[in-house]
Amino acid sequence: MFVGILGDTLMARVGPDQTSDALRRPGARKMDFTGKPMKGYVFVSPDAVESDSALERWVAQCLAYAGSLPPK
Question: Which pLDDT belongs to residue 1?
């Protein structure tokens, strides 16, 4: 998974090295789906991805990270 939707919130897999930068972006917060933060993932609020360009930026970042991972 590189992105997903939970309710109306975007789940973004940005990678552990990019998490701090991602959290500085508007609408981003630690992804704590299981009750504890998940390393390399952030939640993005709906208002932060209202525009196509904002959503495309998140998706592109997540796709780049997923593409950098070794094949399983």
Answer: 84
Could you identify the residue written with the tokens 């789906």? Answer: 33
Q: What is the CA radius of gyration of the chain?
A: 11
User: 26 in the Ramachandran plot: left (φ > 0), alpha (ψ -120 to 50) or beta?
Assistant: beta
CB-based contacts of 31, cutoff 8 Å, min separation 6: 11, 12, 37, 38, 41, 42, 43
For the chain, domain boundaries: 3-68
pLDDT digits (tens, 9 = 90+) for 1-35: 899 999 999 999 999 999 999 999 999 999 997 88
Do the Cβ atoms of 11 and 43 come closer than 8 Å?
A: yes
d(CA 1, CA 47): 22
Whole-prediction pTM value? 0.91
